[in-house]
Amino acid sequence: MTLMLFLSERKQRKRYEQFISPHVNHLYGLACRFSQSREDAEDITQDLLIKLFKQQKLLEMENPRAYLSRALYNQYVDYMRKQGRHLGSVDIDIDNEVPAPEAAASSPESAAEFDLNVSSLDSALGKLSSDHRDIVILHDIEGFTYDEISDLLKIAPGTAKSRHHRARTTLKAALTRQ
Is the pTM of this model over 0.85? Predict the structure, then answer.
């Protein structure tokens, strides 16, 4: 009986790993953007993956991206509360794992310009409030619709739109000053 239980758990673990592995990089990248810290992102992602392992219904989902992103956002909020940290504006530089476009890789000058643009954008994003940064990350970087964002953040679609507009206005002003 013990051997059967062991084999069943092993099969379940392998199935979970196969299911979740295509999503891990996305979740980690999202955690990096939310937390603005690699160490925090690693903790948040690991804690989430452990929690998700216990949820069998996850394995039956056809398109789990929105669910996983929502779960990650909730894990991020919980993590920050447990750490006793405010979700407000953070100005920490991290090496963003944005792949350089082929044009940027064509010459050292264009690669340097691309790095400068990514660095400027990271800096400007870090200066936004958490509410505004989250909207920009979810809409402009991750490609979520306003309805998906409103479900994800538990806010009205109109609130998502107005926060996005204010965030973009603030970003534009910060980037033109640099």
Answer: no
